[in-house]
Amino acid sequence: MAELGLIGFLDGLTATIIVAFGLIAGPIMYYKAKKMNAKFLQLGAIMSVFAVLLWLGPTIDFITILLTQRNLDNSLLYGILSYMWVPPALITSFYLGTLILAPKSTKIVLIVFSIIGIIFELLLFLDTANAFVFTEPPTDFVSGTQLIDSRFNSRHPIFYLIALFLVAMVILNGGGAIRQAVKSSGVVRKKFIALAAIFLLFPVVAIIDAYIPAGAILFVSRSGMILIAIFMYLALKP
Predict the structure, then answer these.
(1) 165-190 burial: b if 16+ Cβ within 10 Å, else e
(2) Is the four-CA dihedral 134, 140, 144, 145 of positive or negative sign?
(3) Taking the CB of residue 42, how many other CB atoms lie within 10 A of it?
(4) For residues 127 and 156, is the Cβ–Cβ distance under 8 A?
C-alpha cells in the first residue's frame, strides 16, 4: 500500500469536482428548465449529467485510494464506470443538435446512433478486457500511488465506434452550429457560436483525458470542461 502521489491526487480531485458539480448543477438546471418549459435547456442539463459521468471511473478510484490506500481491485470496472456513459452523452448531444440545426433529421439520426450506441455498450460490457489497455499504476516513493491508467485498444472495434461518435459530433453538431452562426446575427449568432464551441471542444477534451497520461496536460483537459460548462450556459440560457 502507498499514499496517493501528487499527480494522482490532482487527477482524482479534479475528476471528483467535475462529477460532483455536474450531478448537483445538472438536476438543478433541469428542474428550472422544466418549470420554464425550456426543452433545449432540459436536454442540455441531461447531456451535462451524462458528460460528467465520463469521469466516474477516476472519481471512484480516487475515493477508493483515499479510503483503502489502494486502487480499485478490478481495473475492468474502472473502464466500465468511465465509458458506459459515452453513448447516452453523445446521443443526447446529437438529439439536441439536430433539434436546433436540422429538426427534420432528428428521428433518423437518433435511430442510427442509438443502434451504434447499443453495439458500443455490448462490446464494452462483454469484452472489456480487450477493449482497453490498462497500465499498472506506479507506487514508488517519489510519485506515490496514481489512478488506474486506461487507454482504448486501437485494434478493438470499440475504438472505431467512439472515433465515429466524436467525428460525427464535430461534423454534424459543430459544423452545423457554425453554419447557423454564419447565417444568423446578434444574440442568436452568439448562441450558435457558443454551441459550436461546445461540440468542437468536447472531443478535444475527451481525447486528451483518455489518451494522454496525467501530468501538466491534465490542467488543460480539466480547464476545457470548465469552458464547456460556460459555453453551455451561454448557448442554452433562455
Answers:
(1) bbebbeebbbbbbbebbeeeeeeeee
(2) positive
(3) 19
(4) yes
Residue with cell 496517493: 4
Three-class DSSP category at 192: helix
Residue that has been written with the C-alpha cell 459555453 in this structure: 231
CATH number at residue 32: 1.20.1070
Spell 216-227 as b/e; 16+ CB within 10 A means b.
eebeebbebbee
Query: What's the whole-model pTM score?
Result: 0.82
Whether 141 is covered by a domain: the verdict is: yes
Number of independent structural domains in the chain: 1
Please give the biggest Cα pair distance in the chain: 59
Count of residues in the chain: 238
Q: How far apart are CA 10 and CA 62, in angstroms?
A: 10
Residue pair 146/138 in contact (Cβ under 8 Å)? The answer is: yes
- Is residue 1 situated within a structural domain? no
Q: From the CB of residue 23, how many other CB atoms can be counted at a distance below 10 Å?
A: 14
pLDDT tens for each residue of 99-137: 877 888 888 989 999 999 999 999 999 998 888 877 666
Q: What angle do CA 134, 124, 131 make, to 5 degrees?
A: 35
Cβ neighbours of residue 167 closer than 8 Å, sequence gap 6 or more: none
